[in-house]
Amino acid sequence: MKLLIAVDMEGITGVTNWDHVTPSHPEYQRMRRLMTADVNAAIAGALDAGVDEIIVSDGHWDGQNILIEELDPRARINAGNLAPYSMVSGIETGVNAAFFIGYHARAGASPAILDHTWSSVRVANLWLNGRISGETGLNAAVCGHFGAPVLLVSGDQTVAAEALEWIPQITTVQVKRATSRHSAECLAPAVSQPKIREAAAQAVRKFTAGQGPAPLRLSSPVTVTLEFFTSAMTDAASVLPGAKRLDGRKLEVQCADMDEAYRSFRALVRMAAV
Q1: 86 belongs to a structural domain
Q2: pLDDT recorded at residue 274
Q3: Which residues of this UniProt protein bind Zn(2+) 1 (predicted)?
Q4: Known binding positions
């Protein structure tokens, strides 16, 4: 069994504010070690349950957060920026299933630690085929396009609930209970990381027994609707061929499938950087 572990940072053990996830801030160095340790716990649990091959995708910021020198050597890592499949880099290599470690809730969810959707300064809302989505639904749909179900998500209670809305049989690990956007009741790493390891093993065993979630497949064509924070951002993004402006801050684009939808979404967000 080949597994992709897609990793973000806002849902990692102990993370509660932007200082923790911003590379220029001193607190970031401490938190990237916790990020690596959460990932190692997921790797260990997956291997406990018989996974043969693991690829880790570093999906936060520029993709250079996980400390490779501290990563479990039984896994390989996709690191760096502008990878073809971004946060789920490696999904295109024929993986059987995926984990989402350190994930956060969509923009506007509350209470939720550092809630946002892809960009905290550009994207106000995202809809896929008319259904509001955050990064969990978006990335799970990309995994589903390639036939891989998402078996596990870790983060706060709000991203866990969001994941269950998209993937009812997913296994969730709550490493903190958000009380606002910047505060949470957190488990200590000595508690959270064994929980991640145990849940990872449980999720794989359910999958191999035929009791895990199915891949999340959206019907085609896929309509991507984006609402930006300013009309200027929408001005810039609306020049993409096929984009249809809906109002001052909102546009949509219809795509042949989820692969094209993911690429179009990323292009629109990048174009909106004005």
Answers
A1: yes
A2: 87
A3: 8, 10
A4: 8, 10, 60, 104, 135
Tell whether the model's pLDDT for residue 178 goes beyond 90: yes
Domain end (from 208, 230, 252): 208
Mean pLDDT to the nearest integer, 77-106:
96
Residues in binding site for Zn(2+)? 8, 10, 60, 104, 135
The tens digit of pLDDT for each residue in 24-63 reads 999 999 999 999 999 999 999 999 999 999 999 999 999 9
Domain that residue 254 falls in:
222-271
Q: Are residues 77 and 181 in the same domain?
A: yes
Q: Are residues 157 and 248 in the same domain?
A: no
Same domain (yes/no): 169, 260:
no
> Residue 145 catalytic?
no
Average pLDDT score, the chain: 97
Give the predicted TM-score (pTM) of the model.
0.97
- Domain shared by 105 and 18, yes or no: yes
Q: Specify whether 247 is located in the same domain as 178.
A: no
- Residue 252 burial (CB < 10 Å; 0-12/13-18/19+)? middle
Q: Which 3 state secondary structure label does DSSP give 35?
A: helix
Cα–Cα distance for residue pair 143/149, rounded to 1 Å: 6
